Amino acid sequence: MTGPASNNRLVVLAGPTAVGKGTVAAAVRERHHDVWISVSATTRAPRPGEIDGVHYHFVDDAEFDRLIAEGELLEWAVVHRAARYGTPRRPVEESLAAGRPSMLEIDLQGARQVRETMPEAIFVFLKPPSWDELVRRLVGRGTETEEERTRRLDTARAELAAESEFDVTIVNHEVHAAAAELVKLMESGIS
Description:
The strands form two sheets. This protein has a five-stranded parallel beta sheet with strand order 2-7-1-8-9, with helices on both faces. A four-stranded mixed beta sheet has the order 4-3-6-5. It has 191 residues and is an alpha/beta fold. Helices cover 41% and strands 20% of the residues.
């Protein structure tokens, strides 16, 4: 997916918890090797099957504090009133400078911060087909306690209300279709 410089814009993918951002990003990574996808840093513990440096950079609070203090994060936020997540700045800048199609898969707070510093990016809201489907996906994951699920669903209600802040909405009916729509958007380099 090489093309004119107008396609060399950062795509920011955000949406409510459990909508499938990570799954859609993984489908893009699997089928479109030329797309660079940022790996976020987080202070939360790995979920089963997650690999440090592949899914996230798992760091402790002291290291996360250092990244903030030294300006090494493009954005960061406390998510679900629990763990901190952030996007390392240097890999994003290097990917864009190399002309690679580049994407961040982040939460709503992070997307708002990136909008402040990189307003030229394309902001994509990944939306569930319905509220019931979002609840089903979150419960079906089985990776959160009942208290965490309740907290995430409260957060999701507020996040869904932010759809109008985004340039484009993609409804995640099916992962590969949503990923294909996202890649098509990246190729078109919308204005």
